[in-house]
Input
Amino acid sequence: MTTSQALPLDSQAKMFRHGLILGLFCLGFGLLLAITDEITLDNIAARAMEDKQNSLGQVLPDELHDNNPVTDTLELTSAEGRPVTIYRARKGGQVSGVAYEILGTGYAGEIKLMMGIDAEGKVLGVRVLAHKETPGLGDKIEVKKGPWIERFTGLSAGNPPLERWKVKKDGGDFDQFAGATITPRGVMAAIRGGLEFFAEHKSQLTKAD
Output
């Protein structure tokens, strides 16, 4: 004799109702999670797009383009084999500047920066995206903490010569800030690498589609 045959009909009906209620509850909860997840993903994507636009806006001036560099991209590979997303600024269909992330190593680890360069190879700006440097010391690489990061704007691989894109302590042309050498040294190495990347890929970066 099976279990269902041994139970009275009213008990079977009660178990069925409970099972149905539990199933409907699980279904509703699952749908709620799916909807919430979809809304959250949209919000995260929108915030990421906004953050990217803000970062690019600091190294690709508005007057330089009539397109949206966030969505006008090109994928290349660095000398180290790292994928690099290129954000292109266009004016009248011609590439007027590009921006891409560069990486350096500071006192506390990786420093991620965004670098903008015009079609002739002149630096439009460099801004820090993320770092773990010491507050009050290494964080002076942030534009809101001091003007140090702004001194590269308007310079290029030939002004000064590429081999002099180092801090003065290493025989270069650029000051480190008081009490810290490793952090600015890491940023300088990243910028020098960014300039080398532009020189190597200039024809691809600046050609009109």
